[in-house]
Amino acid sequence: MKILITGGAGFIGSNFVHYILNRYSDYEIINLDALTYAGNLENLRTIQENSNYTFIKGDITDSKLVGSLFEQGVDSVVHFAAESHVDRSILEPDVFVKTNVLGTQVLLEAARKHSVKKFVHVSTDEVYGTLGETGLFTEETPLSPNSPYSASKAGSDLLVRSYHETYGLPVNITRCSNNYGPYQFPEKLIPLMIVNALDDKSLPVYGDGLNIRDWLYVEDHCSAIDLVLHKGVNGEVYNIGGNNERTNIQIVQTILHELGKPESLIKYVKDRPGHDRRYGIDATKITRELGWEPKHNFETGIHETIRWYLNNEIWWKRIQSCEYQKYFDEQYGAR
Ligand code: NAD
Q1: How far apart are CA 244 and CA 253, in angstroms?
Q2: In this predicted model, what pLDDT tens digit does every residue of 203-224 receive, in sequence order?
Q3: What ipTM goes with this model?
Q4: Contact present, 297 and 243 (Cβ < 8 Å)
Q5: Which listed residue (33, 125, 214, 226) is catalytic?
Q6: Ligand 1 pocket, residue 15 CB under 6 Å
Q7: Taking a C-beta distance cutoff of 8 angstroms, is the pair 327, 9 a contact?
Q8: Is the separation of the CB atoms in 21 and 50 below 8 Å?
Q9: Would the CB of 60 count as within 6 Å of ligand 1?
Q10: In whole angstroms, what is the distance from residue 331 CA to residue 333 CA?
Q11: Which domains does the chain have, with CATH numbers?
Q12: Distance, CA of 136 to CA of 134 (rounded, Å)
């Protein structure tokens, strides 16, 4: 099978590239990634020489480039590429619409023209909006996004749906809760708190710190996408979640406790506008229909993640110093 993976230099995409190459020795992967600030080829350094793996630096909105890749005979697409940070979407919504909405449509169109066998669109539980104190998001929950990021993802979900309904494209949409684990860019909650604590810097917590997210270890997300890619019923949406709801302040306290750092590092800051209060996922469908089970509980997952950041200080220090950008520019020309 030849899989086009988009956004494979980002956090989840790079974990997925490793996952697939480890699991299926005869699969070929083309990784299309624009290497925005969030893309990091260091995540893939160990597989650079793998003959089943090809990296293409390019933008998913570039229909000519995307078309030329499909002409090489792509069987399936797993689409991760996106602008993914809510805070950035509040400052710069336009690039979110361009990449997440237009980019997805460009890929869908090429997939349709070349009759791919499966298009897996990796989406987020944030498209459902926010929950009160009780209840969970199911696949039937109406889309009600509240940030430019989640709105652009919801727009892309609807385009994916429309390509199935209108053209019969064999698609699936996955909607996952918050991921954590190795290679996550240190602007997101868990890695940001780990690296700030290690540097004895303050840990900024929005509002009262009581916003709730459901957390899933990234490898468990990869195993769910793997199942959807191979067994997903065309046209279906699958929610993916860890059943690990935590308030933000609980996450921060857990990290400080594991690292032996004082809670005096916590600094409450003005809340994010439109900040969703609670997300919670009902993942019964993927468990019942495809047999998915997460392997990591939150305690082991967060422990492994903290150890990874402790053991890979060079990785995140380079990001902090932007040194890795110099490396990319040397390798692939200035961006
Ligand atoms: P990320 O920001 O770490 O990585 C995104 C990748 O996409 C980067 O490598 C970036 O260079 C690439 N990219 C951005 N714009 C591009 C473009 N125009 N053309 C080609 N490549 C481009 O994101 P992530 O956290 O790994 O998330 C991956 C996907 O999973 C996203 O679609 C996101 O919406 C979804 N998702 C993320 C989470 C989470 O907790 N991180 C949860 C659920 C779903």
Answers
A1: 16
A2: 999 999 999 999 999 999 999 9
A3: 0.99
A4: no
A5: 125
A6: no
A7: no
A8: yes
A9: yes
A10: 6
A11: 2-332 (3.40.50.720)
A12: 7
